[in-house]
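Hi X.,

You mentioned you wanted examples for the new student's onboarding notes, showing what a folding record looks like when two proteins sit in one file. Here is a clean example. The first protein comes first, with its sequence line followed by its structure tokens.
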Amino acid sequence: MIYAETLLSTTLSGKEALMKTIIVGIGNPILGDDGVGWKIAEEVKKQLPPEANIDVVCLSLGGLGLMERLIGYQRAILIDAFAMKENDEIGSILIMKLSDLPSYSAYHTNSMKNIPLQTAIELGRSMGAQLPEEVDVVGIATEQIHEFSETLSPRVEDAVPFAARIVMDLLGQRTTA
């Protein structure tokens, strides 16, 4: 797994300035559609006004590693690919609270570093870490996330601007396209 991190910082005024926010694009940009979280985060970064007070990062990790990156923020928006279910279409967009998602590890191992994010957040809070109370998840339905490619499939690529708009709406910062 590549542990890459792209830090992009910006600032917002008003209510958002009072709530320290992080947007996290999750995935691996060399595994095709698994890199969609990064692409959406990069698009959101372009749309944020220069004075925004929002950190935008791209990460290839979860569990404890992701929890550590959320320390000090009051709000987080996570963007990631998700495995299609029977009635999903490739490129469909899911918007949920982290607390509404199943709490399981994608790696199904006994390693503490791969524990579910919900469990990692509980653990962090029990140790006194300041972690977001509000965590939104924006997911894009994908089919193939384990093929080496730096490009997204056409339907997942088409979802990027729509998902970026959803993230901007979640921020309360809609920009004109």
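Then the second protein repeats the pattern, sequence line and then tokens:
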Amino acid sequence: MEWFELGPFTVFDVETTGMSPALDRIVELAAARVDKDGEINYFQTLVHPGRRIPPAVQCVHHISDAMVMNAPRFTEVGYEFLDFARGSTLVAHNARFDLGFLQESLARTGLPLWDGRTLDSIRLTKTLYKGLPSYSLQNLRRCFNLDEDGDEMTAHRAGADVEWTVRLLKKLCLELISRGS
């Protein structure tokens, strides 16, 4: 059995103006949909948050106010994302954070909430690999050698974090298959 046959999966990540889904806003949304035949399609967009991005937050994800000035608002991309993910399991590394922002943004803009399955890659990693010193995506990149030759991806950008989470998900699914789970 191939790992992607356990899907379809939509691995997603958001970058935001802060840590509170109620008070802060999404500034970037990226996803990779892995279908049961192994085909992978991508979705990525900057999002105009309707407010300034705090300088301390810009230092984390390197997304500036100028970069999102002409980006679409969440109302324009939310439905498109839901359509992209429809019929799959949403996967995020620390799903509570990403799903919290997604659901709050959908509710705020009057779009339907995500009502499908969701998988947190941190929880699955903790189940399969107990006792690691850290379950951060950056630590798991090193621990499981998730980087590939030529990778020039920047941590804390949604597209890069999605790609590393897809690689992690592949490893986790292969481990589940090998254990007969």
